[in-house]
Amino acid sequence: MKEKLSYKDLEIYQLGKELAVKIHKITLDELPRFEMYEEGSQIRRSSKSIVINIIEGFGRRRYKNEFIQFLTYAIASCDETKGHLEMLYETKSISKVLFDDLYASYEKLGSKLYNFRESVIKKHNIFPEE
Fold first, then answer.
1. Tally of domains within the chain
2. Is residue 2 part of a domain?
3. φ/ψ bin of 54: left (φ > 0), alpha (ψ from -120 to 50), beta (otherwise)
């Protein structure tokens, strides 16, 4: 019997979730109190949005255009998260070391998301029939 493929098997999901959990913890533990509810809230939402869009897109993977649309949303949320990181760094709410680490991780995730979306565009049936 074939094992059912899950969004949890996707590298982009695993990396996105790991980063979203990291962002969540950092924004609650390390940000200045005033940023916890402003920029902290925004970056928590955008980082989690990446993961949620991957999940929702995977659920619609039989419909190429919808799958691509949700992967595009995930890429946009990744870009938004990088923008929030830049703001937090430029306002001295996070250190350069933390910024560099997280920004590089989101650059890597964005690249993987883009490549995955491109593979879906070129070859829609990238998953075996379930």
1. 1
2. no
3. alpha
